[in-house]
Amino acid sequence: MAELLLELFSEEIPARMQARAAEDLQRLVTDKLKEAGLSWSRAESFASPRRLTLMVDGLPTETPDTVEERKGPRADAPEKAIEGFLKSVGMTRDQVEERDTGKGVVLFAVLQKTGRKTAEVIAESLPAVVHGLPWPKSMRWADGSLRWVRPLQSILGVFDGKALDVAIEGIKVSNQTRGHRFLSPEPFTVKDFADYKAKLQKAYVLLDAQDRKAKIMADAKLLAADAGLSLIEDNALLEEVAGLVEWPVALMGSFDPAFLDVPAEVLTATMRANQKYFSLKTVKAVRPELVEGRAASGFDKPVLSSAPAPSTSSGRTGAPSEGLSPNGDGSALAPNFIVISNMETKDKGRAIIAGNERVLKARLSDAKFFWDQDLKVIREFGLGSLVPKLDGIVFHAKLGSVGDKVKRIIGLSFFIAWRLDEIPDSVIEPAKLSKADLVTGMVGEFPELQGIMGSYYAAFEGKSSDIATAIREHYSPLGPSDNCPTNKLSVVVALADKIDSLCAFYSIGEKPTGSKDPFALRRAALGVARLIVENKLRLKLREVLGVSLAKQIRFKDVEPGWSQKNLIPKEVEVAKLVSEQILSDILSELMSFFADRLKVQQREKGVRHDLIDAVFSLGGEDDLVRLIDRVQALQQMLATEDGATLLSAYRRGSNIVTIEEKKDKRAYTGGVIGDQLTAPEEKALYQKLQDVKARVAAAVNQERWIEAMTAVATLRGPIDAFFDKVTVNDADATLRENRLNLLAEFRATLSAVADFSKIEG
């Protein structure tokens, strides 16, 4: 068995494209090997800034001999048909066989192919592989036809210790490569993957991205510990930086502590986005004098005492801080950073650090300028003064401006708060200010800080911590791993924002299709489900969607004290009328969409999707908390022996009734005549059904789902006895009809708790 080693060496490949390109290289090459009938024991691909590498081990040195039979036309077929077959197989009439198949004599061509050298097969397929790599963006250079992400400089191709004999776009494949651009630029020869990897490391190249990431983390943590600091870990940044360097060297720099007046999130965003630096934090609590000094500094700086820092879903503090870290653990952002260099230098990186410190100073000065300018506006006019500017930002061509969206959020927040028995007026201000920071200089520079900066500015102005928290958290949860808000104002405004987006885009036909979801509606629906379920909100989702779709609640000039008694009932009635008569199809689509998202959310918690279907399919269930409680009770019941047996009995009984209804062209609706029951088993089942129906109705009415499921499970014994002793399709038509009605009543009784026809297994 032999080993194949490939390396495509080029100018720097963008970090975001490297992992996918390595996977594509492995896929394209192994597909070609499969086509040639080759198998292998192991295949691995690697990527670094300047190279894509593939190793395939356990390959035979020759492809296997093959014998293929192709069936042709009958021997007495028209001459043209026979000629066409012979041409397709490349044989003459006397080279094909005639076989009697029992349906006549048929021509067969036996094609024997002798194995070829694997090196030749690989060499022939390699040009198509190189040309076929699907880059998101590609370029041409010089006068060749090859399009690649960056100019391709050399190709290493070694099979069984020897270089492949092929050239691609004037580049001769060889057994040579190069190491680090500056530290070891001389070419060297390799014979196999182990030799290649070892020599690369000697030439200052860590081939495996996992090795580079491990070295970055280990060195960065060691530097931080030596300085009495702690690294703020950032997996996304680590992934990117590992794609920027081939020989990572961690260096620590510092910046002027005066910049710690700027919020920690701004500083870390500046260092992360612009410079790819890792941030550091102290391992000690914030000094009391920092807080005291800030509180005594007047309105030129944030006053913590007047606006307690809101806690958030990510654990970050919401009030402006002087170096407070985003970790909520009493530590502070340190005036230091870790930069990952691609060089080892004689001066131990001092020149590199100095250069990065100069660049960072300029970046932080820009950030501080935006911060100071925003604070001047907030101090003089307040955060609310920015809201009218939202009318100048287009939300969507068919849906108006962000200002229009904010008006809808205000109205929907008011309605949701009323439905949750909260004070509706309390949500007006956070809803109104929720998007105000979009027109600030800081968010213009760092869009990822939207909401975060709004909470800082609200706290600066002296708004309550609940309002500041709601502004920060109304975008949450951003995904399945993001913490879900629990603050009441946050939850209400977050629901209104997400529901408005869903209804708005559905109303203009912009719905997720397949893998495309440009407006992140799946994430919004999942967020709504999590907000409702995790906070146990008793909310009628269909009603809220109807209100949003009908677009009836529009507060353009909202004033606290609007009469909810006069306003809300009217809005509910109008929304109900419009949604039922005009928007019923959209509303149904939205409810189905939510059911799918709920399945995704609950599947991660171990809840079966078919059980959600079984409850959702009953119709009229739009209280997600009640629905999940019902599903969990159903799951518990089906996990028991009685539950599993009852499910089988339901299917048997339902199938019998369905078949007979189709045959008789009529429906059996459960109109059982008790006096016509003759067998003891059918009498016992009928009596048990009356008892269970009453118990289930009472339990369902009081939302005692486990009690309802327990009652249903008691039908196991009587229904088993019924099927064992009673003939449903009796010769007596009267008995047959009554027994079919009895089974229909059994089916209906179970359907009162769930649609058992939707349950799998």
What does this protein look like?
The protein is an alpha+beta fold. Helices cover 49% and strands 12% of the residues. It folds into five domains: 2-62 and 117-202, Alpha-Beta Plaits (2-Layer Sandwich); 72-112, no CATH class; 209-380, no CATH class; 384-434 and 474-606, no CATH class; 634-758, Isoleucyl-tRNA Synthetase, Domain 1 (Orthogonal Bundle). The protein contains 26 helices and 18 strands. It has a five-stranded antiparallel β-sheet, with helices on one face. A hairpin with a 2-residue loop joins strand 7 and strand 8.
> Helical content, roughly?
40-55%
How would a textbook summarize the main sheet? 5 strands, antiparallel
First CA to last CA: what distance? Answer: 46 Å
Q: Per the principal axes of the C-alpha atoms, what is the gross shape?
A: flat
* Coarse structural class: alpha+beta
Q: Write out the strand line-up for the largest beta sheet, numbering strands in chain order.
A: 2-3-1-7-8
Mean pLDDT: 87
How much strand content do the residues show? 5-15%
Q: Give me the number of helical elements.
A: 26
Topology:
Elements: E1 2-10, H1 15-35, E2 42-48, E3 51-59, E4 66-74, H2 79-89, E5 97-100, E6 105-113, H3 118-132, E7 152-159, E8 162-163, E9 167-168, E10 171-172, E11 176-178, E12 187-189, H4 193-202, H5 209-226, E13 229-231, H6 235-242, E14 249-254, H7 264-275, E15 278-282, H8 288-295, E16 333-341, H9 350-381, E17 394-396, E18 400-401, H10 402-419, H11 428-433, H12 441-445, H13 452-461, H14 465-473, H15 488-507, H16 521-534, H17 541-550, H18 564-581, H19 584-603, H20 609-616, H21 624-638, H22 641-664, H23 680-701, H24 705-713, H25 716-725, H26 733-751
Antiparallel strand pairs: 1-3, 1-7, 2-3, 4-6, 5-6, 7-8, 9-10, 11-12, 13-15, 14-16, 15-16, 17-18
